[in-house]
Design goal:
99 residues, alpha+beta, 3-stranded mixed β-sheet
């Protein structure tokens, strides 16, 4: 699954990152494959600052796969942006401050 982009310490340009889950338990792989459309919709909404839509989509993922920590991460980030606002320069890139 695409996870968006991160700004890696020591690099100038953001880097796209992906979650490889083919090594997970077979039941988890099946759940992530089944919820991939909702996850992608959530990520697209999140990156477009449509945080309420992102929460709805990621909540669909969680309803089917409660252990999906990545979907939970995006829900928490979206809630924080709704509650505290979005930095003006925000482009959906997460900053990785540790190597």
């Amino acid at each position: 699954r695409s996870l968006g982009k991160v700004q890696v310490k020591g690099k100038l340009a953001p880097v796209g990152i992906y979650e490889c889950f083919s090594g997970n338990k077979e039941s988890d792989v099946a759940k992530k494959e089944k919820t991939l459309t909702a996850f992608n919709e959530g990520l697209s909404a999140y990156l477009n600052k449509s945080f309420s839509d992102a929460i709805r989509a990621f909540s669909e993922v969680i309803a089917f796969h409660p252990e999906d920590l990545t979907a939970k991460f995006f829900i928490e980030k979206a809630i924080a942006y709704i509650e505290h606002g979005v930095p003006e320069e925000w482009a959906g890139v997460e900053e990785m401050i540790y190597k």
